[in-house]
Amino acid sequence: MSEMSEDRYTLNKQLAQMLKGGVIMDVTTPEQAKIAQEAGACAVMALERIPADIRAAGGVSRMSDPKMIKGIQEAVSIPVMAKCRIGHFVEAQVLEAIEIDYIDESEVLSPADDVYHIDKRGFKVPFVCGAKDLGEALRRINEGASMIRTKGEPGTGDIVQAVRHMRKMNSEIAKITSMRADELFEEAKQLAVPYELVAYVHDNGRLPVVNFAAGGVATPADAALMMQLGAEGVFVGSGIFKSGNPAKRAAAIVKAVTNYADSSLIAELSEDLGEAMVGINEQEIELLMAERGK
Amino acid sequence: MRIAVLAVQGAFAEHIAKLNGMGVDCLELRQRADLEQPFDGLILPGGESTVQGKLLRELQMLEPLRDRIRQGLPVLATCAGLILLAQKIADDETVWFGTLPVCVRRNAYGRQLGSFHTEAQMEGIGTVPMTFIRAPYVESLLEAQDGAEDSAERQGAGNQNVEGYCKTKGGVTVLARVDDRIVAVRYGNQIGAAFHPELDEDERIHEMFLRLCRQSSVK
Questions:
Q1: A146: number of CA atoms within 13 Å, CB side?
Q2: Which residues of B touch A69 (CB under 8 A)?
Q3: Chain B residue with minimal CA distance to A19?
Q4: Which position among B15, B26, B79, B123 bears the catalytic label?
Q5: What ipTM does this complex have?
Q6: Which of A238, B20, B26, B195 could form a cystine bridge with A52, CB 3.0-4.6 A?
Q7: Would the pTM of this model clear 0.90, i.e. be above it?
Q8: CA-to-CA distance for B183 and A95, rounded, in angstroms?
Q9: Taking the CB of residue A74, how many other CB atoms lie within 10 A of it?
Q10: What digits encode the pLDDT tens for the residues A185-214?
């Protein structure tokens, strides 16, 4: 290879840029991965159980079997992501060893460390992390995340928390952009993040990495709602393979993300999708995954 | 002059920001109705070619855009865009536009760990920065199929600008190689690059494309 740049972090942020305007789908088998690719997923997230089943099964939830992930890598040509537990840097090392395209250090799995997140700067593979607000997002970026997603509330089919997290992040960004330059130091202290990241948000009015929506997306309208709120793309977990007609619903969500402002198209896409995942309301769940890792 | 940027998925905003910075107006192509607006050139951005191709087809933009490319609409295709243009994809039966007589290999450098940044010679420009993200490369040059050659001839295949530079066959000119792999080509009105000029600050590849658009709109 001719003079290669060692700037993996830039390359990793750039891969996230290529995923923009797309839908990343949770899959548990090579067959589901193929259905997702056919339906227009821009990447798949390989995991043993989708969040709704993790929630139903209870117990400790861990990184997937590498063999199962490899099966999915072989089945599709699009990028393959996989989840490791918060703070479990050895699971991350394992995923790097099998050349995963993106690691999701995810609150969907049981946290392995209740204080520290993974030092993601020490890895060559990229990381995406969940965030409920700007402070969490910038802390994860400071640790080396090259992509952010809202946490939402995984496995519920309820969009309310993803909306809350996206709105919160947007309003905090808007607040910082309107601040005087001499107020940024205190803001950095409040958010517990380096000044440089706050200054970036002040100057650019956005996160320094791509920001997707995740957690509770179940319909084309949910996906378009998150896009209109400023998401740059969407993760769909349980919403697809917990529904009546996964292939059709997946394809409809993909189109809704591309043409998120075209209400007559979204109306058309929302017809005859079969049963949506049943879903659970926020008040009905005992485990708030979004409270894991701050 | 106005440039249409395919905006169904991927890094289209980066191309638009670059062109706007160069004082050029852009039009986002998200659905068939957008094709009714006038434009002088087309950019096919990076992203996932399977997603973009599927959406192009299902949103009924594939055929009309292919016709316009065949008729000489200038195109700059980067990474996934190059795959969409290619007449053949290695180990794959899929053909999207199929207007550029080359065979490309997808994910030719492997997974994300194989992504890299380098600099290399680009014909007619000089040394340019090149960012490869899960990139393809051109495995071989092909003979043009069904009428595509006519378009190249109509456009003069652009060979007057790239004299004597390894024009291999069928009017396809190799514009750049990295480690002996072909990473940029030109075929008449079509420029294809395996890398992402929209991700680096250098504007010369976009300038080269805009020159092509100006020449073409003068006609």
A1: 25
A2: none
A3: B10
A4: B79
A5: 0.91
A6: A238
A7: yes
A8: 30
A9: 10
A10: 999 999 999 999 999 999 999 999 999 999
